[in-house]
Amino acid sequence: MVDLSLYLSAESLQEARLIADIENMLMNLQKENFLDVFNRIKTSVFITTVNRVKQLASHVIFAVSKRYMSIPLYSKLICDLYDIRSEQNQLSQLHSAFFPLIIPCNVDSRTLYFLYFCAVGSLFTDVDIVDVLRDSLKKEPDQITELLTLFCFFAPEVEEYDKPLFSKFIKAVIKEAGQPFCHSYVKQFGSELHDLCVDNWSLLKSRREAMKSGDKIIDSLFSDSVDEFQTIVSHSAHFDLNQNINESIFSPPHMFSKTLIQFAARCGSVKCFKYLLLNRADLRGTVDSAIIGGSNEIVRILKQHNCDFTGSLAAAAKAHRNAIFHWLEATDYPVCKDIQSNDIEAIFGAVEACNMPLILELLEKGIDINLQSHTGENIFSASITTPIDAFSLFVNHTDIDITKSMNGSSPLSTAVDRRNVGAVDFFFHQNRFDLRDRFKMENLIHIAAYQGDAEIMKIILNYPHTDVNSVNRVFYVY
């Protein structure tokens, strides 16, 4: 075992272990351990300062992106914490912490349901959501398309509290729904608008409340109602068991799970999965979905059927399915045993997903931190992601060169390109190296302009050596 205190300060190591602890709690949150997790967080450092509360919020949204089935629990956890706000803590900050993390770049069915259940739990009001939509549109009137998904989910509230805004969005939906590359969420809303709004939006409201899409196939697979699914199959003379599911604003995002059996695996719906398997559904491409879903039984069934588990270590690390990772490691894919491809999968999967428990475990096992990914990326560059905690760990590791370029791009330009405000802010406000040479070599201000991140642009413009009239040497127009 490697003594990490030889490479990291006591402060950095303590922070990393703190993050590993909160990740473990959130990624494994269930009804059975809810009270224990709540009690641990309410007495933790994560309620003591504004920045700590924001850090907690960031990790909750990250967990929401990984654990669709637990979204109501995450909302309840936050609402219960908000209920104990007082002058002795900073939990009142939870009221405003989540909108900046979600809008406009992180809006999908996962974050929409999280916001909805938070509103149900009185973290904020329906008026707050309408205000955010109105203010976002006012700031970026040309970006109404990006806000349509949020509107589609909360249309009843918008109509009730701001009819002119509602009319503006409805017109935008109708216009957008007719476009060839319209987002499936908006297209679905546009096609079902008449039915959804009948009787004061009763259909839309019932779908939100029950987390149901209205698509009988999706809903039966999601709830693992095998009898209902069998009925659907039996009523169709030519039912295709290998068909793709229809993406819905009220169901999990497709991601890797497009076919029926992939979707069942991703939802951990064991009974429906077995039914599809017995009826010879195509298993190709199902391994990653099963790992994301986290059902040990489904994963082992796929193993018994000799499915291709290539890349499964990385999939488990990215999905924060550490128990499955350890099972894979113990069976066919040993890590830190002189099999470089396994080590690359493990460490880069963990770093890219800020899987802090696994990162610390791999570092203690002595994994080579100078490994490069299959695309030539180094570990430090891979850590420039959200949440920022993996970056914060590696930036303080004595054996990592934070100035080293990757594929011609510096870590700073990578941070700008990935819109990682925390990493960009670090590079501009620490004194380990001079940024002037880097500004001569890279189009940082142009990259920031293209990405459209106002916070990053402010950081760059405040730097004294920024040339606002610099020539864009890579692109002519953004």
Automatic annotation (TrEMBL):
<dbReference type="InterPro" id="IPR002110">
    <property type="entry name" value="Ankyrin_rpt"/>
</dbReference>
<dbReference type="InterPro" id="IPR036770">
    <property type="entry name" value="Ankyrin_rpt-contain_sf"/>
</dbReference>
<protein>
    <recommendedName>
        <fullName>DUF3447 domain-containing protein</fullName>
    </recommendedName>
</protein>
